[in-house]
Every structure is written in structure tokens, then in C-alpha cells.
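call fold(seq) -> C-alpha cells
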Amino acid sequence: MRSVALSPEARTRALADLASGELDVLVVGGGVVGAGSALDAATRGLRVGLVEARDFAAGTSSRSSKLIHGGLRYLEMLDFRLVAEALQERGLLIQTLAPHLVRPVPFVYPLKHRGWERLYAGAGVALYDTLGLLSGRSRGVPHHRHLTRRGARRVVPSLRKDALVGALEYYDAQVDDARHTMMVARTAAAYGAHVATRARVVGLMKESGRVVGAEVQDLETGERIEVRAKQVINATGVWTDDTQSLADTRGQFHVRASKGIHLVIPRDRLQSKTGMILRTEKSVLFVIPWGRHWIVGYKF
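ret:
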């Protein structure tokens, strides 16, 4: 692997290389899924291209809750395999793949009922910690702990005294999502992928009913090039249907976007040393530290 810079010169070379011969794989979309697909293909020795209409992580991949987590709430759904796999990936990211980008973050879960809730939630968090060890490696985050009401308010002074009887503190991890996506794309380029931003797919080329490449417009110069590929991967997320329509057909799979809301508030509006996770009627509410702000996130 060689070190590369995602510079204007590198972009110009990548566009020229994309047009110079048939690729094994052309990935459309520079979010984390597209960048990851390009990296996976490039490390297998394939000739790979990646084009993005705007910039890396310009869409959903820079608008996440910034969490690397195992999905604590999925334990209630008894989806142990999903949680164990996610926790294994969390450990890999913290300790091996991206320790410079991913770091542990504590969260407080307030308890509103005496006795049974501490047993129920405590058992869930203990299982969460245990599943993180099943991969045979360290979790990469500290173990959870139980807090009294006074202990919880010492950590989160903004909590009302009458709003809880105690709390649990556990750890997940946080990432700079946009920077992570950019680093994945850069690593793909280091393994030989031809990576270009500001390169919009304006048409898909078909032969005998099969997509064999794409027409790509350089948004800096207006020039259009034809990029031929044995396989074209549509990694455009919520724009998947729009990209599929360029082939004059509806794809077999249709994207149904999930709905989530993130509010960003100044850090001084909430006095707390940790993040928080709060239960709602239908889901959970996350309060996540992010620099000089808090991200308040809710997923429907």
C-alpha cells in the first residue's frame, strides 16, 4: 500500500484512468458504504473506480449520530447475533482499525423505578458487556457501573432529583463520521482504486439489457467520460432509486428511508460529564457529547 493524497492532481489522474480501460468494479456513491465497497474490492486485487457527485460523506454519512455502538436496544428484541457482531466491529475499530478516530464515550441511563428496573436494565447492560467479549478480544471500553441517585446527579447535574431513583453508566464509542469515511476512501485509493469526487453519474450504459458502465460528468470542467465496468455498484443510499432510474428500469430492491431527528444544542445548556440515553414511548433518545455541543438524537 502506498500513501496517497486526495488532491486535485490525484482527482485529474483518477478521471483519466477511469476512462482509459474497463474496470472490474465501478462504485457509484462516496458515502461510507461506497468507500467501504471500493476498499474491499481494491484489496482483493480488482481494478476499481469510485465516483461521487459531491464530496465524501456529503450525504447521510456526515449526518449520523456519530456513534459506534452495538445496538443496546436490540437486546430487547432478542437479536443477540446482531448485537454481538456490532460489538465485535466496535472493538476492532477502537483497538485496531481506527483508534485515532474512534474513542469510548460514557452514557448514563436514568432509572425511574425501584428494584425491578435496576435488575432488568442492569442484566441487559451486563449482557451487553459480555457479548462484547465473545469475539475473543477485549471490548475496548470500560465495564458498566451502577449509580445511586446522588451519584448520577454528580455526573449529570442537570438531572432533576425527582426524575430518577438511580442510574446505570455504560460505554459505547464515538467517531467523526465524515473524517472516517474520507479515510476509508483514501485507503481505497492507496490500494489502487481510482477515486474522484465532483464526478456525477448522468447515465448508465447498457448492453443486452445489462449495465456495463456509466457516463460520468466532471462537474469542475463539464466534460463527460464513459467508464466501462464489469460490475457497477449503486451505493447512493437514499438516492438509490434515482440512480437506478438512469438505467430506465426499476431495480429489484427499493430503499425505504428511516426517519431520525438530530438537534444540536450548545454544550453549556446541559450540565453533564457524560452522554445520556433516555427511554421514550416508542424508541430511545440519545444525548451525545460532540465538541462544544450536544447532539440530541431520536430515531423513529
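Helices lie at 8-18, 32-43, 80-97, 116-131, 149-155, 177-190, 240-245.
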